[in-house]
Automatic annotation (TrEMBL):
Source superkingdom: Eukaryota
Region (Disordered): 489-531
Reactions that this protein is recorded to catalyse: citrate = D-threo-isocitrate
Protein name, per record: Aconitate hydratase, mitochondrial
Molecular function (Gene Ontology), one example: 4 iron, 4 sulfur cluster binding
C-alpha cells in the first residue's frame, strides 16, 4: 500500500493514500469492533482524528480530510473570491473548476458555445486567471459537464471528494464518496481546514439478478426514488451491494449515484469491482485500478455489516420506469404508464426528447440510444418529436463522432448541443411552445421540478433512461410502450423495435477530442487575476473589519422576521444568480423574501432613523452609511434550505452584527460564524415575543465566552428597559473568527505568522 500512485493523470505529486487510509481504519476498527459498511470505511479512513472523533451515525459530527475539491462555474466564483481573501498562495487540497453551467442551448453546440464564451467572457477570464494563480485545474467551456469529467479523470475508489454542485455523488460510480456542498465548505477545504459532516446513516440497496432488454441502470434509481421519495435519503448515504452490481457498467453506476441527489441522499456509493477496473483502464488509469485491487478488501462492505435500512431489488424483474411529471419520485413502470397518462390527463403528445447531460451521457448510453435510432432508420422512420443530444464531455462527443453514433443520432433528427448542462439547468431558449401552454417533454436527466428545464410551469417533464427517451421520441407520444407496441415502417407495415444494445466502453479507446484543459503554469507568481473594477458580475472581496472589542449599544432591529425564513428568503436565487460573484450587487436581494412581523409584508421595513418605510436592503445600506450596526430577530429554524454562503455574506456586508433567533438551521449558523457575524438564540424562546420591531438593543459582545450566555438589553420604544439572555454555540476557534472579522481573516492571519 505504500506505492506512489497519482490521483489523476492531470497533476503531479498528489498521490492516493491507501496506506494512511488503512491506518486510520484500523484505529476505528479497534474502537468500534464490529463489521463496517463501505460508506463508513470511506468516511472513517478520512477522519482528521480517528482516535478521538465521536462516531455515532446520525448524531456525531465528523471532521474529515477530503482528497479533492471540484467546483462548477456558477458556484466557483464566490468560492474563489473568498479563497483569495484568505491570502494563501495556492490551494492546499487539489481542486478543479469546470465551466458547464453558463452555456445556453439555442441552435446547436458550436454556435451556442461561441455565444456563451462572448456573454460570459469576464466570468471565464476571472476563473481562468484565478485558477492559474492559485494552482487549480481549469476545464474550459466546451470541455464538458463537471460530473462526467470527474468520473473520466479524477474519481478513484475509496476517495472522498466534495463538490459545489448537488450531483457530485456521480463519482460514486467509481467507488468514491463524493458529496455536494456549499461554497464556504469548499473554501475551507481549499484552505486546509477539516470539513465537518454529520455522520450519515447508511441505507443499503441490495441488487440481485441481472439487467436485460429495455431495462437500464437508470431504472434502478428511478425505482429507488419511487420507494424512498424525495426526502427518504436525507442524512443518509445509499450503499449499493449484492451480486447484481456486477451486471452494471461503471458509468451506469455513476448514473445511479448521480440521481441519488433526488432523494436527498448525502451521497451514493458502489463497491469497487471489475467493471470499475475496466473503466479506469479505458480512461488510461490502469495504475489506479491495480492499486485499488491491492486494497480491494477495504473497498467494499465487511461481511456481516448491518445497514440502518435495507432495500432489495431483483434486476431480473425490474421494469423500465418513467418518473414525473414535476417530481422525480413519482415512479411509474412502463406497463402502467399509458394508463397513468390518461388518468392524470398528462398531455399525451410528446414535444421534445432530450438525451445526455451529466446523468446519462456515457459511451454506453449513446451507443444504446444510437442502436434504437438505427433500428428506426432501417425501417425508414425518424424522430417525430424534437430531439436533442447533450454529450457529457468533449471526450464522449469526439468518441461517438469517430464511432458513428453521433451521425446516427443526427440522421434520426437530433440536434447536438454543447458539451454542457444546457436544458438540464434551464439554459434552454425553447421556442416551440408558448409559456403557460401545457405540453410534455421527456429527458434522460435527473431533475424535473416545475419549470426547471424551460421555465414554463405548464411543461410536464418526465425523466427516464435514454433508451425510452429515444423510443418515445420516435413515436412522438407518451402512450408508446416499445416492449409491447408496434410502429409503422415507411411502407405502412407494423414492426417492433429491437431491444437496445451497445458497448459499455469503446473498443478503440476514447478519443480525447479537442484540448480543453488549462493546467496551472509552473511560475504562478506573475499571473494576475482578471477582475474589471467596473464589472457588475464580479467584485474582489475586501476583508471584513475585525471586532472593535466593545459592547454594541443602541442597535436598531433591521427586521423582526416572522415564520419560515429560509436561505431563499434571505438570498433569493432566480435572476440574482447572475450576481453570485458580486457581493455588493447580490446584496440587493438581502432578506427581501422574509416576512416583517410589524406589517406581515415582505421587503418593507421602517427605518428607525427617519421613520420611513423602505426595502430591507435599502434600509440596511442607510444604516451602514450612517455608521449604525444592526441586528435581525428571527423565528424558528432560521436559515434552513441550502448551504448558500451568500445568505451569510450579505448581512455581514451590509453592516449587520448579530442574527438573534429562536433557533438556527445548523449550516447557516456556521456560515454566519465564518463571516464574522454573531448567530445567537434566545435562551428562552418565548423572549422572541417580548421584542418589538422598533425596539433598540444593546449587545454585550465582551461577554462572549465558550459555553456562557450573553446579555441582550432591550430598550423598548415604549416601556421599561429589560434584559434577555442569549445562547450561542461558539467554540474557542470560532470565537477567533468573530474577533478577527471572519474565518478567512483568521486564516490569513495564521498564514502570515
Ligand atoms: Fe447539474 Fe444537469 Fe449540469 S444536473 S451538473 S445541471 S447537467
Amino acid at each position: 500500500l505504500s506505492k506512489k500512485v497519482e490521483m489523476t493523470n492531470w497533476e503531479k505529486g498528489h498521490y492516493i493514500n491507501y496506506q494512511k487510509m488503512s491506518e486510520n481504519l484500523s484505529v476505528v476498527r479497534q474502537r468500534l469492533n464490529r463489521p463496517l459498511m463501505y460508506a463508513e470505511k470511506i468516511l472513517y479512513s478520512h477522519l482528521d482524528d480517528p482516535h478521538n472523533s465521536e462516531l455515532e451515525r446520525g448524531k456525531s459530527y465528523l471532521k474529515l480530510r477530503p482528497d479533492r475539491v471540484a467546483c462548477q462555474d456558477a458556484t466557483a466564483q464566490m468560492a474563489i473570491l473568498q479563497f483569495m481573501s484568505a491570502g494563501m498562495p495556492s490551494v492546499a487540497t487539489p481542486t478543479t473548476v469546470h465551466c458547464d453551467h453558463l452555456i445556453e442551448a439555442q441552435v446547436g453546440g458550436e454556435k451556442d458555445l461561441a455565444r456563451a464564451v462572448d456573454i460570459n467572457k469576464e466570468v471565464y477570464d476571472f476563473l481562468a486567471t484565478s485558477c492559474a494563480k492559485y494552482n487549480i485545474g481549469f476545464w474550459k467551456p466546451g470541455s464538458g459537464i463537471i460530473h462526467q469529467i470527474l468520473l473520466e479523470n479524477y474519481a478513484f475508489p475509496g476517495g472522498l471528494m466534495i463538490g459545489t454542485d448537488s450531483h457530485t455523488p456521480n463519482a460514486g460510480g467509481l467507488g468514491m464518496a463524493a458529496i455536494g456542498v456549499g461554497g464556504a465548505d469548499a473554501v475551507d477545504v481549499m484552505a486546509s481546514l477539516p470539513w465537518e459532516l454529520k455522520a450519515p446513516k447508511v441505507i443499503g440497496v441490495k441488487l440481485t439478478g441481472e439487467l436485460s432488454g429495455w431495462t437500464a441502470p437508470k431504472d434502478i434509481i428511478l425505482k429507488v426514488a419511487g420507494i424512498l421519495t424525495v426526502k427518504g435519503g436525507t442524512g443518509a448515504i445509499i450503499e449499493y451491494h449484492g451480486p447484481g452490481v456486477d451486471s452494471l457498467s461503471c458509468t451506469g453506476m455513476g448514473t445511479i449515484c448521480n440521481m441519488g441527489a433526488e432523494i436527498g441522499a448525502t451521497t451514493s456509493v458502489f463497491p469497487f469491482n471489475d467493471r470499475m477496473y475496466d473503466y479506469l483502464a479505458a480512461t488510461k488509469r490502469s495504475a489506479i485500478g491495480d492499486f485499488a485491487r491491492s486494497y480491494a478488501h477495504e473497498l467494499r462492505e465487511d461481511e456481516g455489516a448491518e445497514y440502518d435500512e435495507l432495500i432489495e431489488i431483483n434486476l431480473s424483474e425490474l421494469e423500465p420506469h418513467i418518473n414525473g411529471p414535476f417530481t422525480p419520485d413519482l415512479a411509474t413502470p412502463i406497463s402502467k404508464f399509458k394508463d397513468a397518462v390518461a388518468a392524470n390527463k398528462w398531455p399525451e403528445e410528446l414535444k421534445v426528447g432530450l438525451i445526455g447531460s451529466c446523468t446519462n451521457s456515457s459511451y454506453e448510453d449513446m451507443s444504446r440510444a444510437a442502436s434504437i435510432a438505427r433500428d428506426a432508420l432501417n425501417h425508414g422512420i425518424k424522430a417525430k418529436a424534437a430531439f436533442t443530444v447533450t454529450p457529457g464531455s468533449e471526450q464522449i462527443r469526439a468518441t461517438i463522432e469517430r464511432d458513428g453514433q453521433l451521425e446516427t443520432l443526427e440522421e434520426f433528427g437530433g440536434m447536438v448541443l454543447a458539451n454542457a448542462c444546457g436544458p438540464c439547468i434551464g439554459q434552454w431558449d425553447r421556442r416551440d411552445v408558448k409559456k403557460g401552454e401545457p405540453n410534455s417533454i421527456i429527458s434522460s436527466y435527473n431533475r424535473n421540478f416545475t419549470g426547471r428545464n424551460d421555465a414554463n410551469p405548464a411543461t410536464h417533464a418526465f425523466v427516464t433512461s435514454p433508451d425510452l427517451v429515444v423510443a418515445l421520441t420516435l413515436a412522438g407520444s407518451l402512450n408508446f410502450n416499445p416492449l409491447t407496441d408496434t410502429l409503422k415502417d415507411k411502407d405502412g407495415n407494423d414492426f417492433k423495435l429491437s431491444a437496445p444494445t451497445g458497448d459499455g466502453l469503446p473498443a478503440n479507446g476514447y478519443d480525447p477530442g479537442r484540448d480543453t484543459y488549462q493546467a496551472p503554469p509552473e511560475d504562478r507568481s506573475s499571473v494576475s487575476v482578471a477582475v474589471s473594477p467596473t464589472s457588475d458580475r464580479l467584485q474582489i472581496l475586501e476583508p471584513f473589519q475585525s471586532w472593535d472589542g466593545k459592547d454594541a449599544l443602541d442597535l436598531p432591529i433591521l427586521i423582526k422576521a416572522q415564520g419560515k425564513t429560509t436561505t431563499d428568503h434571505i438570498s433569493m436565487a432566480g435572476p440574482w444568480l447572475k450576481y453570485r460573484g458580486h457581493l455588493d450587487n447580490i446584496s440587493n436581494n438581502m432578506l427581501i423574501g422574509a416576512i416583517n412581523s410589524a406589517n406581515g409584508e415582505a421587503n418593507k421595513v421602517k427605518n428607525v432613523t427617519n421613520g420611513e418605510w423602505d426595502a430591507v436592503p435599502a434600509t440596511a445600506r442607510d444604516y451602514k452609511k450612517k455608521g449604525i450596526k444592526w441586528v435581525v430577530i428571527g423565528d424558528w429554524n432560521y436559515g434552513e434550505g441550502s448551504s448558500r454562503e451568500h445568505a451569510a455574506l450579505e448581512p455581514r456586508h451590509l453592516g449587520g452584527l448579530a442574527i438573534i433567533t429562536r433557533s438556527f438551521a445548523r449550516i447557516h449558523e456556521t456560515n454566519l460564524k465564518k463571516q464574522g457575524m454573531l448567530p445567537l438564540t434566545f435562551s428562552n424562546p418565548e423572549d422572541y415575543d417580548k421584542i418589538q420591531p422598533e425596539d433598540k438593543v444593546d449587545l454585550m459582545c465582551t461577554q462572549l465566552a465558550v459555553g456562557k450566555p450573553m446579555t441582550l438589553r432591550v430598550h423598548p420604544k415604549n416601556g421599561e428597559v429589560f434584559d434577555v439572555q442569549l445562547s450561542h454555540t461558539f467554540n474557542e476557534g470560532q470565537m477567533e473568527w468573530f474577533k478577527n472579522g471572519s474565518a478567512l481573516n483568521t486564516m490569513a492571519k495564521a498564514a502570515k505568522s
